[in-house]
Amino acid sequence: MFWRTIWNLGIVTGVGSMIFIFYYLAMNVVNLFVKSPQAVSVQPIVPVPGLFVSFQTFPYLVFALSLVVITHELSHGIASLAERVPLKSTGAFFGHVLMGGFVEPDEEKLNQAGEVTKLRVFAAGSYTNLVLGLLCIVLLSNFTATMAPFYTVSSTGVSVGSVPTNLPAYSSGIQAGDVVTAINGTKISAITDIMQFMSSVKPGQEVLLGTQRGTFPVKTAVDPTNSSHALIGIGRLTDLIVYNPKFPFLSPDFPNVLLHAEYWSSIVLTSVALVNMLPMAPFDGDKFLASALTLLGIKRTKEIRTIANAAGYGILLLNFGLSLLRFGFVRF
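^ that's the sequence the OP posted. Answer follows.
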């Protein structure tokens, strides 16, 4: 009863995931087509180091993919056993650097089961992936708090992720990767310090940005969203945080490793969970839709699944194509 309750939540989540991913991808196609600022790049991540992903990203991507496969298949197995559907085969594998597993329910027994049973089994994998992905997001949003019992956390500056060519900071010599440590001699430890200092700066006023490479004068511009605010022209800012271990057996590098592992796990887990619920063969969403239609007594199931498959593949390919045209190839 415990597992059936869990997988009943999976059914509800599966329906919501299918609706959400369809709506999200459809709206993103529109935003990509009209070149809206809200458009995001939707591209597959191919785990080939040095070509599609950097060597720094590759280990975290492998970990995230292994976590997806293991938890996804394990959940299908648990749901099948809870519904008294025997497993035809199970196993684990280690291919080069990717770990995983597989669970194959007895298809004959599963086809003979009720539609609610099928829905529980088909939704289990994506449901577990989504829950774990959301858990990673929660951990990321409270990362410094989770590290605080083991590390002394301190901010030492603000890392600059991008410098748009049409804004003042670019001509001053500031580069992506620089760390802002002071403005006009005032110490900057976090993004909130920059926001507080800039609240009193007028457009056109010159400020001195202190970085690890030296000091750069920047004549501020008018913020297009608020004419009374001054704009430096630095983006994708992140606090540069230092973790000092409270215990001798802890590594000072572990928090950064864990941070990247949680970040990539959150992306891969949630992405796989949602895309897998698109009604496209051979994804679970196609079988989930078929069982849902049968349960609701809807006829012409085959025709509806064919249309849903065409719509799913069409909207996904449009996202891929328009993303490449708009943003180019993204190397992670």
